[in-house]
Design goal:
Strand order of the largest sheet of chain A: 1-2
Number of helices of chain A: 15
Oligomer: heterodimer
Number of helices of chain B: 9
Number of strands of chain B: 10
Mean pLDDT of chain A: 85
CATH topology of one domain in chain B: Rossmann fold
Structural class of chain B: alpha/beta
Number of domains of chain A: 1
Largest sheet of chain B: 6 strands, mixed
CATH architecture of one domain in chain B: 3-Layer(aba) Sandwich
Radius of gyration of chain B: 19 Å
CATH superfamily of chain A: ABC transporter involved in vitamin B12 uptake, BtuC
Mean pLDDT of chain B: 88
Low-confidence stretches of chain B: 257-263
Low-confidence stretches of chain A: 1-8, 358-362
Number of strands of chain A: 2
Amino acid sequence: MTSVPAGLGIGAARQRARVREVVRHHPIAAFAVALATVVVLSIVGIGLGIVAISPAETLAIVVHRLIGLDLGVSWTRATEAIVWELRVPRVLTAATVGAGLAVAGATFQGLLRNPLADPYVLGTASGAALGAAIAVLLPVRILFVEFGLIHALAFIGALGSIAVVYRLSRLSAWSGLTNLVLTGYAVGALLSAGLAMAMYLSGSSLRQIFAFLLGGFETASWTRLWLAALLVTAGSAAILVRARALNGLLLGEEAAGHLGIDVRRERAILLGLASLVTAAAVAVSGLIGFVGLVVPHVVRLVVGPNARVLIPLAAAGGAGLLVAADLGARLLGDIPVGVVTALVGAPFFVALLRRARGGYEL
Amino acid sequence: MSTGALAIELRRVTLGYDRRPILRDADLAIAHGERVAIVGPNGAGKSTLLRGIAGVAPPLAGDVRIQGRPVAELSREALARRLAVVPQLVTLPFSARVEEVVALGRLPHEDPLRGLRAADRAAVAAAIDRVGLGRLIGRDARELSLGERQLLLVAVAIAQAAPIVLLDEPTVHLDIRHQVEVMDLLRDLNERDGATIVAVLHDLHLAVRTFPRIVVVDGGRMVADGPPATVLSAERIQDVFGVDPSNLPVGPWSGGRVSSEAR
């Protein structure tokens, strides 16, 4: 019984086991390493672009702006504008959205006990998209401190759809998890019909709706970044505090109850928090897929299912992935970032699944 | 928690779902350190009784008390420190190591922010050792055999360190060797650690072999409660299970040929 399954990848399996052991015993150090990686990626991401700016200049501008320290490197006003007004908010928005989607994905997967779950599983995506489409169609152009109607209605659409899904699923006699997912699917389908209709009616504004569906960070701004970062950080922190409930749910809802978790209450709270984080991410970036589904899986394969470790590392992983993907998208001539995440991420994920011992019972 | 109080006490309790009663007028008093099996045909209300004791099915009428406190008054966490429930087999949605699963037993005790402390880790290691799964540490729990998985769930309950342990058909998927292993483990937990054990069992032989006290549930009523020799008479087997006891191997129902190992 002690033998290791024979076959390929024993060395890799051992190596992964070692990494997992180190990370399991030093989760804070692992998080620090992940965070440092995100910071380095961000500096590179800020420096590279149509106008290349050296890492030294980039760092000097950022440090000067942040804490007023002079690193002895000089730069031009134009460079500073590119770095501080365009690239820094863009890179930080990518990091915030990546972190938020990964945390929300990990939460939905744990909450629904479903490896196929992602932040959009309960209708948030369709709700946000419909909200954005309505904003495009409306003849008014309200600008409330830089918050275009698109962002506002996308945010409201995402939260609204999940609220409807939750209420509807509770009305049903058997309010199980499958029911919640199926209700999400039904409501999502209805909202998608609305979206299709809106796109049909949109005429020349179709491109704007399409841009939202593809997602991206071209329109990043400091104000929107602050708000999204606030919601994502607060929401993720609150989810992390409730890691216990997510861990208990690993054994199922009833077993979690026997382990002292107030399942109904925790489920409602976690659902609300994950939805808030998702809505904030979607409102500033549109619909970016893949991150919220894949990053939690990859992190789980390395560190195991303990939410207390999983959530922070997924946040760092999601942030790193989207910063890198956005950089790739910019370097490839501003193609949609979702194309890059899928192109790079999907083969990587498949390779990882093939090597994961025991595999995933999807 | 008054020390003189019973571990489990039900007074004229009616249990059910959506106001539809399934078990009626149940009276049950189980002292600390007892070992009790609940038997009965399918659909008799055994699992409902267990769920009622565990506070999952709130009583429609009557009073369920755990260590003298009404179960409805206890928070889920306080209840989890008094009472562990070993579920029937669970499926894990994600890969999880044996020790990661057993660590879930510490949820009612662990620090909500910092997670497992050294004492918790020691309890987890001891629980894994106790059920004899030490050689499987580091393995994905989903790769274990059914028997090992059942032992794993018992280990979760041991790590939970609650003085009362409820089990819902803990041997239903197991081969004979594992059935005996689980039963002996329960007996050991009861005799060495003083845990109060209440188990729903299908197998009358295992019940007779391991449990000195047996509660028979039939048609939503508790119809008998006592030692196997008096409770599982030939007439009652015929009555409750609808089986001619002469078809069964030797047991308390076999008239003079009684052989009960249970003390």
